[in-house]
């Protein structure tokens, strides 16, 4: 079994916590998690890392504002400011680890961060996969409204509903819902996590949208995947991205919600590995 190690690196005056697996001499994949309550690199990616680490070095950081990464004082007052801070964090993490270039995989909010990274430092990234990505043309659904306003009622039952809604079939989670929800609820009730979350979502999630003028200037190969039954970022968002990115392909998984890496883990990993190896 591939070892998955925890480590911290200094990034712009605060410490970033990350998971690191695979041979340092191999090409690197950076996994960027989503932005729901209780999200972090472990909850989004831990089981998926082993699907990739046999062939790549895999890095999965807790994006600033989430998880065990430091929560600095004086956080940005806008969602666009948070995105910029996370872009700078990922670039600083790459510098600290001596990573010149990398592939990117971004889920939901992490997909928007991935595109902003390509916009900011295109020469540092090769191939990009977006999964249920924010940043496209999408209108807030009732599920998203419940997610961004979670702390108006940060109850176990509210978090249990959100957790079920993230997937098409909760049996795909592979663990009991109460166990998963208990872990995530402990995370969301940490005061620093709550402070960051409420600050991040103090402005509209639509600020994560990437302008068409930026998308058409991203010549990198993109693999876009989406669950047909995703109700947090609806599939039309990925259709929009595929239409405006000049070198993008789109795969939609049937009977799948927002967490493709959970519900279609092996199928998505196989698709991703072929894409990264430039087999199509």
Automatic annotation (TrEMBL):
Entry keywords, A to Z: Hydrolase
Keyword Plastid: no
InterPro entries (UniProt xref): AB_hydrolase_1 (IPR000073), AB_hydrolase_fold (IPR029058), AB_hydrolase_sf (IPR050266), Epox_hydrolase-like (IPR000639)
Molecular-function annotations in GO: hydrolase activity
Domain AB hydrolase-1 residues, every copy: 29-270
Matching Pfam families: Abhydrolase_6
Superkingdom classification of source: Bacteria
Record flagged with keyword Hydrolase: yes
PANTHER family: AB HYDROLASE SUPERFAMILY PROTEIN YCLE, MONOACYLGLYCEROL LIPASE
Name by which UniProt lists this protein: Alpha/beta hydrolase
UniProt source species: Rhodococcus artemisiae
């Amino acid at each position: 079994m591939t070892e998955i190690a925890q480590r911290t690196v200094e990034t712009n005056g605060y410490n970033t916590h990350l998971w690191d697996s695979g041979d340092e001499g191999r090409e690197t994949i950076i996994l960027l998690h989503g932005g729901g309550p209780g999200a972090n690199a472990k909850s989004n990616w831990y089981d998926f890392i082993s699907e990739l680490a046999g062939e790549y070095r895999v890095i999965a950081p807790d994006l600033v504002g989430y998880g065990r990464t430091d929560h600095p004082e004086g956080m940005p007052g806008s969602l666009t400011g948070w995105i910029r801070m996370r872009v700078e964090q990922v670039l600083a993490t790459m510098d600290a680890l001596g990573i010149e270039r990398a592939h990117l995989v971004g889920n939901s909010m992490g997909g928007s961060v991935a595109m902003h990274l390509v916009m900011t430092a295109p020469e540092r990234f090769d191939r990009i996969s977006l999964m249920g990505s924010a940043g496209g043309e999408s209108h807030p659904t009732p599920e998203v409204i419940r997610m961004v306003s979670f702390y108006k009622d940060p109850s176990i039952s509210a978090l249990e509903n959100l957790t079920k809604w993230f997937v098409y079939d909760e049996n795909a989670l592979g663990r009991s819902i109460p166990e998963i929800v208990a872990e995530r609820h402990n995370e969301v009730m940490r005061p620093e996590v709550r402070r960051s979350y409420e600050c991040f979502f103090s402005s509209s999630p639509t600020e994560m949208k990437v302008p068409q003028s930026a998308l058409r200037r991203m010549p990198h190969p993109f693999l876009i995947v989406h669950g047909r039954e995703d109700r947090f970022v609806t599939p039309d968002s990925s259709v929009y991205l595929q239409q405006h990115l000049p070198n993008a392909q789109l795969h939609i998984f049937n009977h799948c919600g927002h967490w493709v890496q959970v519900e279609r883990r092996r199928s998505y990993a196989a698709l991703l590995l072929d894409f990264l190896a430039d087999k199509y």
